[in-house]
Amino acid sequence: MKEITAIIRRDKLPETKKVLEELGYPSMTIQSVEGRGKQKGAMCAEMDSELPDSYCTAVRLKPTPSTYALDHTLPKIALFVPKRLLTIVVPDDLVTKIVKSIIKVNTTGRNGDGKIFVSPVETALRVRTGETDGEAIA
Description:
Strand content: 15-25%
Largest sheet: 5 strands, antiparallel
CATH architecture: 2-Layer Sandwich
CATH topology: Alpha-Beta Plaits
Order of helices and strands: EHEHHEHEHEH
Mean pLDDT: 81
Structural class: alpha+beta
Shape: globular
Number of strands: 5
């Protein structure tokens, strides 16, 4: 079993959920997160693609300055960009198919498309029934 963790644009969540459901994996954990990548938040207006391009960039995204940036003098405020974090546990043989599907749905070609991490899962247990591993994730 593998855990797939995907950090994606907020507006891509419905499409991503739909493709995972079509692949037979509707179960997932979704979190609202904030972070930054190589651009250190500098491209934040471009990263928020939920609103049409005709909107003023000041209206499109209100990035959150880091607590550290507010408490210290920095040459540039460190901004965090709002994203969605999805976590799903799948059998080893489906990892490639699911990762490729997530990439296909979330690729825009612009900075901020996201990241995907794949990690091994030692065991899984369903609390209610006591099922383990494959039965617990199905």
